[in-house]
Amino acid sequence: MQITKNKVAGIHYTLRDNEGTIIDTSDGRDPLYYLHGAGNLIIGMEEGLEGKSKGDKFQLKIAPEKGYGQKDPAMTQKVPRSAFGDQDVRVGMKFSTDRGDVVTVTEVGLDSVTVDANHPLAGVELNFAVEVMDVRNATEEEITHGHVHGPGGHHHH
């Protein structure tokens, strides 16, 4: 059975940057199950999985435009240091905004802190090693809800 719209696929993956550093992997965990065509994965991954079958192993190189997008300079801004109260703010720290967005501190000055709301993988070329572990038909409920209900489709909210 091939991966097409409204099929559930289970995959193992390892994501590396261009230097070969592992960013994320499903190694040692259960496969990642998703509903194909429902927009639950980045577009480059869905395009790369289209037509694949159980047992297929392959490499995918995904450009930022089909991954997490390019870095948007408008999503970086300086905020007054006073906005953080008396916290010891350091580069790399993450904070949630009032709107629920996650920002990362990229620079700390005397009076201001620069934060970046871009996805951490924005602007990064993604290199995936993928193995298709399972492909099945989605249940009507999964199609209606737009996501997988467990490996066998029997998970209720």
From TrEMBL:
Pfam families: FKBP_C. It catalyses: [protein]-peptidylproline (omega=180) = [protein]-peptidylproline (omega=0). Keywords: Chaperone, Cytoplasm, Isomerase, Rotamase. Its main location: cytoplasm. InterPro entries: PPIase_dom_sf, PPIase_FKBP_dom. Residues 6-83 form the PPIase FKBP-type domain. GO terms for molecular function: peptidyl-prolyl cis-trans isomerase activity. It is found in: Cytoplasm. It is an enzyme of class 5 (isomerase). GO terms for cellular component: cytoplasm. It comes from the Bacteria. GO terms for biological process: protein refolding. Its EC number is 5.2.1.8. Belongs to the FKBP-type PPIase family. PANTHER family: FKBP-TYPE PEPTIDYL-PROLYL CIS-TRANS ISOMERASE SLYD (PTHR47861). Also involved in hydrogenase metallocenter assembly, probably by participating in the nickel insertion step. This function in hydrogenase biosynthesis requires chaperone activity and the presence of the metal-binding domain, but not PPIase activity. This is Peptidyl-prolyl cis-trans isomerase. It comes from Chryseolinea soli.
